[in-house]
């Protein structure tokens, strides 16, 4: 088995002397327009072509062509197999999912982005809680007041200056009320 040069890309030839060609990455429409098959990928190690959209989004139970699972190496019938695959329902559904994923990634609306916003919101919330507690602590220290009382629970009489001031903040501050 030799190697054939195609547009500076070498593809191995099979026993019948056939090989993959970069021309398969293009599809010629009836009006003569050439469109790029962005979904088609070639594996050097397997010497086979795959559909990246179907590989990612087709369910294992789907009855799609070999492009989704094991790949295709039938270079004699590759044009017909690619055309047949492009018109299949599984491929169309996978392409819709692929395009949707592309749009989501482009907008930055991934799960990571949403999680990042939640973490940022949480961080801001806890910074405010700490700021309130620090303000209470600073006030008590500046006035040389004791912190503790007879009890260490909120909303119990004689629970000390610190908890009494926390209770005061809870009355007027929704962030502190969340933690009472």
From TrEMBL:
Residues 24-110 form the TTF-type domain. It comes from the Eukaryota. This is Zinc finger MYM-type protein 5-like. The gene is LOC106468728.
